[in-house]
Design goal:
The chain is mostly beta strands. It contains 3 helices and 22 strands.
Length: 329
Amino acid sequence: DEAGTVLTLKLGEKIEASDELTLADLVDRAQRPNQMAPTTLQLEPARWPVSEHGLLFSMLTANRPAQRRAASGALVGCELYPRGFARTTAPYCLELSSGSYLATDAGAELSEALRGATALTIEAVVSPASLDQSGPARIVSLSRDTGARNFTLGQEKDAIVLRLRTPATGRNGTNPQSTLCRFEPGTTVHVAATYTPGLLIAYVDGREIARHTTVKGNFSNWEAMELLFGDELTQDRDWAGQLEAVAIYDRALTPAEVAKSAEVQTALRAARPSIPQVEVEAVVTAVSPIPSLQSIAPYTRALVTTEYRVTRVLYGNMEAKTIRVAHWG
């Protein structure tokens, strides 16, 4: 009405699929009550990515399959291969301190799809571990080594930057390197960058914060590269932090789509259950033998188990005195 009255309804349980809510027989408090016409509202669950139109790659959290757009046009599963000491956190974010993840089979197809595209969107939820990172430290990188890339989303001290390769910016995408935003220590931000030739727009938490017109050109000089999270393929530009919700499109998302994506991400993170955690001091008591490559061929990694004796519980509750940790070796 003209007074701007708002009715807020909180659902008793989370909806898992599209549904409808019908409002009927509602009347106001006028001397002669007015009855509102029956109204049906469409309810949609919080889904991410917010659109599959132009979507080439997506990774929500590590406990859900990542997806890539295959040459056939279908979205198919994509394995994230851990390197170094990369691992997942309790809410299944990628913990990338001293390691990285390689999106197997995604890089070449992604490079080929974007080489013929006229626009690009990169979005991610980023939690840097410290401001003492430069190079830039690689957060999301479609690249080969420190001197050749198609794009890199990285951290340079207190800034998140973008290197984007075009015929004008060079094979390393450094002419120029664009600053997307600056951030405070200990923060988690939803960062999105959209590019159409001559216009780069940066968003933080769904709000546009910067426009750059210094990057020119298309992607016609792109080459087949690898898609990595947390480092360069040559393992010399490590980034320390947590990463989730990576999406790459062959079009520029609209401001409304970026805002919706940030809103959904905030809701998904707020809805996560609280997971009990324990921090201990421990001493290594045993390590399982590391197999040779010949003994596990054709595989190139195997589970290695380390046993620890707990000497002190620093945080949380745990009665066990022995812990066994399995990780890829």
